[in-house]
Every structure is written in C-alpha cells, then in structure tokens.
Amino acid sequence: MYRSGKDILEICNKKNITIWELALETEIRDTHIEEKQIMEKMEEVYRVMKNASESSVKKNRKTLGRVIGGESKKLKTQMDSGKTICGDVLNKAMIKAFSTSQHNASMGKICAAPTAGSSGIIPAAIITIVEEYNLSKKEAIRGLFTSSAIGKVITINATVSGAEGGCQAECGSAAAMASAAVVEMMGGSPEMALNAAAISLKNIMGLICDPIAGLVESPCSKRNASGVVNAMISAEMALAGIESVIPFDEVVEAMKSVGDGMHSDFKETARGGIAITPTGIKIKESIKKC
Amino acid sequence: MKEVNSIFDVIGPIMIGPSSSHTAGAARLGRIARYAAQKDIEKVVVYLHGSFAETGEGHGTKKAIAAGLLGMEPYDDRLKNSLEIMKEKNIHIEFSKKNLKTVHPNTTMISIETSKGEIVKVRGSSIGGGAVIVTNINGFEVEITGEYYTIITKHIDAKGVIRDVANILAEESVNIANMKVIRSHSKKEASMIIETDETVEIQVIDKIKKMEKMLDLIYILPIKEDENV
After folding, report:
1. Is the distance from CB of A128 to CB of A122 less than 8 angstroms?
2. Residue B153 reports pLDDT greater than 80
3. Domains delineated in chain B
4. Which residues does A49 contact at the CB level (< 8 Å), separation at least 6?
5. Closest A-chain CA to B5
6. How many folded domains does chain A comprise?
7. CATH of the domain at A276
8. Which pTM was predicted?
9. pLDDT in tens, A203-212
C-alpha cells in the first residue's frame, strides 16, 4: 500500500522493484482481480489512447464548440517539410496531444488520464517514446502503470480536477504522470521518476483553468501540447540526474495549497483568465447563438 | 483525503468526450434514472441546472443524458446519436433549463413518464471524474451512486420496521452491503436506503412493500449491470 512518493520509494527500494511493478501488484491486492484481467483492461486503455492520438491527423472532425481543430495536421505538415525548431520527438508528441484533444472535443472515445480535458498528455508521451525507441506494447503498458501510481498519490493528497485545483491540477498532474512513465520506460530509477514528476508539477504550478465558453477546447488543447513537452523535458532532466530541489510529496502539497487558495473564477468556471477576454466572450456569444 | 480503490479510477474511465463530468457523468445519471423507472420510459423531461444548463450544449450533455436513458454506457460509440435513437424508439424527450436552488452546479432532474403513466423523478449531480451521486428520487432524499441494487423505502417511523425489513431480506439470503436510515424532520416518517450485492426478487420487494408501516418503496438496479441496447 502506497499513499505518497515516500512510500513508493521505500517499497520500491526495499523490494528492488520499479514503480510500474508496485502499481500492478498493489492493484491485484486491492481489487482482488487477477493480473491477466488487469493487463487486458490496461491494453484496452492503450488501444483507445492510440486511436485517439492518431485520429485527428487522419480526419479533421468538427468539435462541438468549433473553437479548435486542425492543429495536429498543421504541425504534421510542418514536421514533414523537415523544417522544425523543436525536432521530431517533441513535434510528434505535440501532434498526438493535439489529436487526442480534438478527438475528445468532437465526441470521440478517449481515456480520461487523469481527466478528459488533459487526456492527450500521457498517451502522447508514452506512444512517442514507444515509436522513437522501437519499444513494445508491453513496455507502453508498463508506462501506463507507472503513470497511474503517480496519479493515485496526487489524487489522494491533492486533486487532479481543474474545478478543484485549476489547470495545474489537471494538465500538471497529467504531465507529472507522463514524465514518470517516460523515465521508467527509458530505464530510469524510481527516484528519477519522482524527480521528473515533481519537476513537471513545479513547471506549471499556479496555472489556472480558464476554458473559453466553459468548453474543453481552448486553451485546453494547446495546454495538452505544452503539457507533453513539459513531461518530456522534465523526464530528460531527471534522466540526466537533475534532481527536484523540493521532493515530490512537498510539491504535491504545495500544488494543493495553491489550488485551495485559487479564486473560483480560475477553476473551470469560465469566469476568469482568457475566458473573459473580449475575444473569449465573443466566442462564447457566437456558440450560444448556434 | 480521498481514497483511490483502483488505478483505473485514475487512468480512466474510457469514455466519449469531451468532459468526464458533463458527458460521462451525465450519461451515468441518465442510466440511473432509467433503472429507477425499471427501464420503462415513454416520455422524459430533463431539467438542467447550473453548469449543465450553461455549458451543456458544448459538452454534449443532452446527448449523454439521453444515451444513459437508453441504457448506454459512457463509452458507447452511439452516444453521439442518442437523440436520433430516442426518436426512432418513439420516446419523447425534452430539455429545460431550471434553477434547482442549492445543489451542485452539475445537476439534473430527470422526470420520466412510464408506459403505465407513472412519474419517476430522479435528481442527481455529476461530482467529478465521471462519478455521480443521486440525491433525490420521487421526493426521497437519498445518496446513491448506482453501483448496487438499491431499495429505498419510505415508512412510518416506528420500532421494528427496520428489523422486519432486514428479516425479510435475510430469509431470502440477500446480503446487505450498505444501509442508511434517514428520519424526516417531522419525525413521523423515515427512509431506509439499502444497497445489496445481489438482485432482490420481485416477490421479496412486494413483501416489503406490503408491510403495514410501509408508505412507499423504490427498487433500483445497478448501472454496472451490462445491458444490450
């Protein structure tokens, strides 16, 4: 049983196991469900994630609010032209994040990870690493288990909901979960994974949730793209041996207290931030007329 | 401090987008209402409150509630087309914005008319991450999540009623998972919310219904029960 980053490290080090192994064995014990069934369930999650991360590149479906669309295709065209600033890895990751976000906003099937609004980040990170390093589906699924352990600890000690803690809690948690997965998939230690998660959370601490017209479209899809980049760079830092000055558990506590102190205008109510800019309000009015 | 029973509460649910609260949770509430009406639905009026009313359109909330009323799961690919399916099945559905006063912002009140002309009213809220809570059924103040077989009674607050109901269930080897007793302010009436692990036969429900001090009873099936729709 683990309830904190400290617990994760203690158990993993004592048993000499990885975070994904701890997540899996704990799930078996807590739910009394057999390993085979749990694996099958996670495979289904991966299948849904993979499909959503590719869907909008293939087909530009209209979203419910018509606020976003076509971002993944545009980035793909630019990447294919060979002229990019961020290179192929980050571009591929952003393309997948945008694709899932658009798929979600057009009533496609996604897996909330940890929420629907932030559902593009974890798949984008994991699938990009799988493709870049020719890893197997099995390794991708292990990454999902690593993510889940981090998400569980954040849920227990803080929140992953934008309505409770702002975007830092949604896209921040997703990035933390994704970065820890990437670290383990790349062979990093549990310490490194927790450092990556802590760095990801710190990078966007304080970020508000200010969806235009209250819809899961803008700025959400771009925050999924920046969220996966956040996850990738945090994992890169951690794998290089860079540590988070503040330990993971304390960062989670800090994120919670920032969220608690955040005015409700900035927590998914669409009463603050970019949602109430003149353009944001104009978009809201135009959706109402439809 | 929250509890996380399964990691699939963190990585999950698999659902039709865009919002776990406004789409997946809304579908679940529709589904609980369907079971409260014993799957017998002829006409529905759906009242949307707060954020459900304000942003429901851009979240597919109406389609999601309709899908739930049809028995669909939040991950059903046909959720998008639920309103058309309702039409094909000759189920009349209408939506209305309504201030339901001091309730959670993501709240709906679903009023179902059955083929027998009975009205079943279910009020529930989507409380985040796709989780829902039903707070009122036909005037009974409840707190149910739709995970169990649930019996809700309204009875005269007198000694022995709870014992008698428990005895009937025990005789039929029904195991009670959770139980809650609520007394009305007047102290004359009380409600029992009994959640059980297994299905309760209709004869058993009738037996409880016919108890002398019983005023009313509703029996709800769990939403986990898969249904081919």
Report:
1. no
2. yes
3. 11-138 (3.30.1330.90), 149-220 (3.30.70.260)
4. A100, A110, A111, A113, A122, A123, A126, A127
5. A30
6. 1
7. 1.10.4100
8. 0.89
9. 999 999 999 9
